[in-house]
Design goal:
2 domains; NADP binding; alpha/beta; aromatic amino acid biosynthesis; about 35% helix; about 20% strand; Rossmann fold; about 280 residues; NADP; 12 strands
Length: about 280
């Protein structure tokens, strides 16, 4: 089974070892490679991969929204997010899916974070943020606020969701109990239970330019990035007396959901996460 992860940068990606560990657990043989692709190169590189009998791919920054164009069909999660992190070759065509949000929710539960009724701040309005809005609404958070350097981009994202929700049937009316709001980074100040950094700032050892007022309620602070050391966002939050976590668990959980789409197998994520953490 030929698999790959596409992104730029990509050398840091742990996806090959994660999926190899899943394959060893489930008795499968796979070939999983990293493929460096800028937005301009993505179409050509993906076409080459598909022509070489590739059957599944992960997509990371900055390509998740571009991957929509390679998908003949979209899963409900990808449709919601308008971003794709998993491509599956099925029945002769490519299906676009998004496992980011469900992976994040699973990892937050691992840390004992109750989402129902929680006030959640999501920093960032790119593909990573898009992928988690639907699962957050399904988890029945009380308030989801999206703060971004470009407040207009965040506001447009919320407007998309409000329009989508307005057209849903009454059977899904529970989502209307979640307050959706957005603004620039200055709007991040508030009383939050959970703060999530969905920007790529950790890749450059930086953090979003939010102030200490964001942490007034000492929220649980989660960075979707990860590394050998705590990210700059985590260090800042910890210095302000907040509990913190990085996105390694999310990476493993979303990878397991991708692996299930490709193989039908459900791997043991905790074993893989513990092994991966010990080798960072």
């Amino acid at each position: 089974m030929k698999l790959a992860v596409f992104g730029s940068p990509i050398a840091h990606s742990r996806s090959p070892e994660i999926h190899q560990a899943f394959a060893e657990q489930t008795g499968r043989e796979i070939q999983y490679e990293r493929i460096l692709a800028s937005p301009e190169e993505f179409s050509e590189r993906f076409a080459q991969f598909a022509a070489a009998e590739g059957v599944g791919a992960n997509v990371t920054v900055p390509l998740k929204e571009l991957a929509l164009g390679f998908s003949k069909r979209l899963s409900p999660r990808a449709e919601q997010a308008q971003a794709v992190n998993t491509l599956i070759f099925r029945d002769g065509e490519w299906l676009g899916h998004n496992t980011d949000g469900d992976g994040l929710v699973a990892d937050l539960f691992r840390f004992g974070q109750a989402l129902r009724g929680a006030r959640v701040l999501l920093i960032g309005a790119g593909g990573a943020a898009r992928g988690v809005i639907g699962p957050m609404l399904d988890a029945e958070v009380a308030h989801l606020h999206i703060a971004n350097r470009s407040g207009t981009k965040a506001e447009n994202l919320v407007a998309e969701w409000q329009q989508r929700l307005a057209g849903q049937h009454h059977a899904q009316a529970k989502v209307f109990f979640t307050l959706l709001s957005a603004g620039d980074l200055a709007s991040a100040n508030g009383q939050w239970d959970i703060v999530i950094n969905a920007t790529s700032s950790s890749l450059t050892d930086e953090r979003p330019a939010v102030t200490e007022a964001t942490l007034a309620n000492t929220p649980f602070c989660y960075d979707m990035g990860y590394g050998k050391q705590p990210t700059a966002f985590m260090q800042w939050a910890k210095a302000n007396h907040c509990a913190v976590a990085d996105g390694l668990g999310m990476l493993v959980e979303q990878a397991a959901l991708s692996y299930f789409q490709w193989t039908g197998d459900i791997p043991d994520t905790q074993v893989v996460l513990d092994s991966l953490r010990s080798r960072l």
